[in-house]
Amino acid sequence: MSREQVIYILKVLVIFVVLSLVLDRLVFTILNRASDKVLSGQGIGKLNHYLKQKDSLELIIYGNSRVNHSLNTEKFDEQSFNIGVDGTNIAYAECLIKLLPKDKEQIIILHIDPEQAFSKNYAGEDLKKLRCKYHQIDTISSIINRYEQEDPLQSIYKSRAYNGLVFSVIKNYLYPKYDHHNYYGFDPLPTSVEQQKVMKKLVENDRQTECNEELVLNAAYEKAIDDIDKFCHINNKVLIVISSPVYRDNCKEDNIQLRKFLDERDVWYFDYSDFFRNDNSLLYWKDLNHLSEKGANLFTDSFKQDISKFNTNKLK
Amino acid sequence: MLFNSIEFLLFFVTVFILYWILGCRFKLQNILLLAASYFFYAWWDWRFLFLIVFSSSVDYFVGSKIYKYDRDKLRKWWLCLSVVLNLGLLFVFKYFDFFARSFSELMKQFGWSPNELTLQLILPVGISFYTFQSMSYTIDIYRGKLKPAKSAISFFTYVAFFPQLVAGPIERASNLLVQIEAPRSFETKRFNAGIFQILIGLFRKVVIADSIGIYVDSIYSNLSFHGTTTILIATILFGFQLYYDFAGYSDIAIGTAKLLGIDFKQNFNFPYFAKSVTEFWRRWHISLSTWLRDYLYIPLGGNQKGVILQYRNIMLTMLIGGLWHGASWGFVVWGGIHGLALVADKLHTSKPILSKSKVSKVLGWMITFSLVMFSWLFFRSKSIEANIEVINKLFSLELSPLFLGDINVFFTILVVLLMGVGLDFYLYKKAKPLEPFGAQLSMFQLGLASVFLVLVINLFHSTSINFIYFQF
Q1: In what helix (H) or strand (E) does residue B321 lie, and over which residues does it extend?
Q2: Inter-chain contact B460–A11, Cβ cutoff 8 Å?
Q3: Is B123 a residue whose pLDDT tops 80?
Q4: How many CB pairs (< 8 A) connect A and B?
Q5: Of B23, B191, B415, which has the smallest distance from its Cβ to A9's Cβ?
Q6: Termini Cα distance of chain A
Q7: Considering Cα of A35, then B463, then B411, then A186, what sign does the dihedral take?
Q8: Global ipTM
Q9: Res B465: pLDDT
Q10: Cα distance from A163 to chain B (closest Cα, Å)?
Q11: Does residue B300 sit at the A interface (CB-CB below 8 Å)?
């Protein structure tokens, strides 16, 4: 390779590095400015909406799609928000909980799926959904780093924070999905006749599965629950852990083990997995793990009564 | 290590710098390439390093013996040794369990339940590719088309050359070995072409293919809950996923080799624009289709022994070609479909029903595209039962609304697919292959194109990790 060729390669490299970093920062800045104004949509809007009002909320619900579609926050007396997000897990919830203001009295409803709590492979991958805030909120970046879910290239190319979110940001910036002032986080799942047929098929095809032979609480779950519990104690929060209803809970042992774990830590736990066992109409379900709007409203009414019976001066 | 990983980037940059520091000393460069290739392969699974060294040693030795002897009988004997050993390795690691299980299932139909004797061996990465590549060497020496490698290092490097080791293209000694045994020079045009093709390959693979994969996986994992429309769209999208996954990988392999001053043959030439199945096989996985033509179809007699035997040879070649892809009857069925289509194409060519008008070309494209897309479902659904379920669904005409899933993902798929198909269509219409396209770019144009592609990759890459053809 001649000297001229080496210089050529270096020139290409310099042009590429300079231009790519400039363009990256430009795109990142534009997307930041746009996304900060997005307060609707599951991609980033709901998260922004939560961040905007978290300090003023009295009751907040955390978890995945199961709780997102099962607890109707409009029915609560307290100022409430359901930040259940599809495809998330306990690390995501932990991150958002730790953003809450210190000392303010707040009720934390945290959904845990017992099956996921005892899975072997979970290591906080759901934190990838918070990478869009990696460069903006220190708590989020530190938790992502702790779970080793950081994108190594994101420190060089900041626009990677918006991977998979660009169209969602543009669309909701230009045409918001809903008026966020009238949105409290609950996403009802209306069902149709077609859906009922699908649900019937799901029920027919559902097979009884046995529990895993060895039930060991996932290490990430154990640490996260301890951290959340500690945070709540220090910061005047009431932590209530729930497992929302499922159509058919085939393994009970994980629920029992989870209850034992939480009891050892004096954490309140309500297991609603079998809530509809005695009246399991298909009308209450979207699929085997998610309630329909009808089922969610029934469940919410009952849950609200349960937590109001709490013997604690921290609840209204 | 995957091509789209930081480990590979660090690995390749190191190799690139050391390689060109060695300059014209191509023998030292070959030693470096060999060491790097074995390191690359060992990264996957160091235990199978012994296998590739063994296979290379046998063929290097056999090649020299074939060339040395004049008597055809002896030469044939050595050739058989090479073929039997290579195919034997392939059979043991890839097909033994499949045939053992199939035999056991067949016997159960007759009321006998033999013990299922399976080896449960891990499939060594790339074995289907490097055994074929190594065999072509000994066969070409036997045919008098090639002289043996000048040194063991150059031959071992030819077999193990890391850009194409684990998933092709399947190179011929007449192309690759010749370049390995000659000094390589750095050319800026080839450098430009290499960089551009690597980035296009990454775009095709991590943006288009992997994004489509998210949607396709969600549909195929819940087949019974989707109607005809959704499954049809998912099947077509899978065809694009497969193409962009494999073509993307080939682009990265070809581009990487270019950066080392080595030219691979083109492996994909816009196959989805083919107007007949015959044309499709001149455009899809060209390195495999030409290998099968030269080392299976032609030795069987090709089209030289009459029409009936030609059709037989086509069917055999395609059935074996199907089986090469994987140890499953689904792949054999896939091969059979293409075999029948090729036979039908030959029949039509000899007695054309349609004239060569524009309308017939469009019709030809539609038929070819539909057939190819339909046949891919045998790649996706691994079991016969799943295949039957998909086919039933497709022909049941349950015209329920299309399931979009995550609307963000679906819209991303549409946009990036449009970009990918748009680029392909542009190059196809201009009759410009992708391989040398980057060579015409100036330094600044290359910089700009790279910046744009990297931005698109950063914003739209999927986080799922799959190189579909690695399973072969």
Answers
A1: helix B307-325
A2: no
A3: no
A4: 74
A5: B191
A6: 78
A7: negative
A8: 0.87
A9: 56
A10: 4
A11: no
